[in-house]
């Protein structure tokens, strides 16, 4: 039997792989709770719909060939901390960077709070590295 922490880690991995990488909106709808709050989201992108739009309208156009590498994932109580990187070719303006047509890496450490295997809150530290 899986622990709550193992289940939560599986949900976070699914969100990253299915929604962020593949753009699966059904996965987003299943995983992100209606009252979700992104405490460190870009202004105007702090709630559930804003978070979805940030990924689909800003991140995906900026890195259309996006790939994911998860370096570490730690779960405790109702939270999962992930150290990860998204890489791709910077094709549109993103996080203050003009498109370069070259490789960019978005390194992130985030904390996800879950309840009933759904995202209810998020905090992160992000760094965009362009070459």
TrEMBL record:
GO BP terms: polyketide metabolic process
Name recorded for this polypeptide: SnoaL-like polyketide cyclase
């Amino acid at each position: 039997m899986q622990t709550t922490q193992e289940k939560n880690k599986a949900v976070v991995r699914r969100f990253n792989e299915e929604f962020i990488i593949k753009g699966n909106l059904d996965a987003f709808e299943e995983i992100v709770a209606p009252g979700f709050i992104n405490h460190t989201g870009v202004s105007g992108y702090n709630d559930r719909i804003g978070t979805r739009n940030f990924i689909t309208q800003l991140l995906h156009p900026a890195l259309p060939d996006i790939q994911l590498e998860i370096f570490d994932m730690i779960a405790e109580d109702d939270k999962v901390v992930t150290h990860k990187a998204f890489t791709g070719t910077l094709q549109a303006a993103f996080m203050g960077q003009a498109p370069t047509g070259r490789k960019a890496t978005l390194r992130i450490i985030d904390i996800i709070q879950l309840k009933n295997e759904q995202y209810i809150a998020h905090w992160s530290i992000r760094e965009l590295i362009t070459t």
